[in-house]
Amino acid sequence: MDNFTEIIGFTAAILTTAAFLPQVYKTWKSKDVSGLSMPMLIMFFIGITGWLIYGILIHSPSMIFANAITVVSSFLLIYFKNKYGKK
Amino acid sequence: MDNFTEIIGFTAAILTTAAFLPQVYKTWKSKDVSGLSMPMLIMFFIGITGWLIYGILIHSPSMIFANAITVVSSFLLIYFKNKYGKK
């Protein structure tokens, strides 16, 4: 993996992660989880965990970085859905 | 890249892509784009394009597969936002 490839990877990582975090923040502040579906969130969480394992297997720093953050944030969405969805 | 790695990758690809498509479908049917922010969509689109290029550079079939689909679907969200957001 050369430097150019990792620069592309980290640019992608920062952009897609930064686009996802406001959703987590918005859900946390508004406590509005009506638009989120639990099966979808769990599917997404398992999928991102898969990408994280994939990133580790191919030794990709940018994939490990991006998916580690997204695993945590998608877990938070599951937690919010479970907490606020029961009212 | 061995078979086991690509099985993990394709599992991840199918799960994250499948979790994203209902959002595109919901937006298309409801024409409700109020929850979508254009700068965020554009950031996400450029980010996914970056992951697609990254997947090509590292010769990862599962990353190319997943991100090619997501590039198209995030472009559709930008198109819907532009079309329905102007009413």
From TrEMBL, chains A, B:
Q: Can you tell which superkingdom this protein's organism belongs to?
A: Bacteria
Specify the protein's topology with respect to the membrane. Answer: Multi-pass membrane protein
Q: Report keywords, A-Z.
A: Membrane, Transmembrane, Transmembrane helix
* Chief site of localization: membrane
Q: Which SMART domains match?
A: CTNS (SM00679)
Q: Which residues cross the membrane?
A: 6-25, 37-57, 63-80
N-terminal signal peptide:
none
The protein's location, in the record's own words, is: Membrane
Under the heading Pfam families, the entry gives:
PQ-loop
Q: What is this protein called?
A: SemiSWEET transporter
